[in-house]
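Hi support team,

I submitted a single chain yesterday and got back a structure, but I'm not sure I'm reading the token output correctly. Could someone confirm the output below corresponds to the sequence I sent? I've pasted both exactly as they appear in my results page.

Thanks,
R.
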Amino acid sequence: MGKINVAIIGVGNCASSFVQGVEFYKNAKDNEFVPGLMHVNLGCYHVSDINFVAAIDIDKNKVGKDLSEAVFTPPNNTFKFCDVPHKGVRVERGMTHDGLGKYLSQIIQKAPGETANIVQLLKDTKTDIVINYLPVGSEEATKWYVEQILAAGCGMVNCIPVFIAREKYWHQRFAEKGLPVIGDDIKSQVGATIVHRVLTRLFRDRGVKLERTYQLNFGGNTDFLNMLERERLESKKISKTRSVTSQLDYEITPDNIHVGPSDYVPWLLDRKYCHIKMEGRTFGDVPLSVELKLEVWDSPNSAGVVIDAVRCCKLALDRGLKGALIAPSAYFMKSPPVQYTDDEAHHMVEEFITAPVTKDTPTPKKSGKAD
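Hi R., thanks for writing in. Yes, this is the structure output for that exact sequence:
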């Protein structure tokens, strides 16, 4: 099927794990279970078919460097599990807007010079798919980049909680251009949100009334530093909370649910700690309580999901699909246009991968919720 030309906006920890992962799994065998990958070969695209052609950032320590070097440049602090050979991809100076918050600006200095011509860059590099890895809270910057992506004629995978794919205005803009978008806010492979969602659904399926729950997260990467600005946290809290409550067919009052990042601990680096507590009533109104602690390296935990999302987005381009891709978004993202249970979403995305459909509009199931 050829290569998938990929551009990255934001060369942080998530980009580092993604770039490392494509190199790490480039020789993975199709017929084996490969730890860390949900699909070695997805719709005839192998992991090794992902081809990095452009990278964009504003950090003066990254702009101008080769992508292979920039992904290991501080303040990036994620786990290094693979050497990355020279890519011949220069990190270009991007647009700032609201992408650099109060706390990030204390450790990141903007690169001098003008913003690169992003539309021309994407066209010149024949980019197929653009990945948005901007910091949480980059509302205006994300929307500015979406305009450039639309003008350049690329598909998009939106990995952050700025709502694009789930918003009618934006997914209609992609549809009008004949382009696909997957979003919003990437789910990790086994992260806080997916674990909390699955446990919430387990409570409901087994007849337990969930009455109160919290999810507290803290870590040492720049995402947690950035989210010390509470106003930048609003979309993240909305995304994570709705992802959990979408698994229920009744309401939990806002005072009885708290889902979101809580603090920044620098020495944890890119490690993330999650504490989940769930209280409910079971048979005979007898109380039940679950407490769970999860520890992960945050960025590698999402990279395998992004590898699949990119390939699904390229399949959509190949098939002439346009607008928000319902099935991949439901499986890969916390805030898709329509919420499904994870079992349903998994089944839908497998059908999406194997069936050369002409329209990504699966029949809504009763549990599907518009978000």
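A quick pointer for reading it: The longest strand covers residues 271-282. Let us know if anything else looks off.

Best,
Support desk
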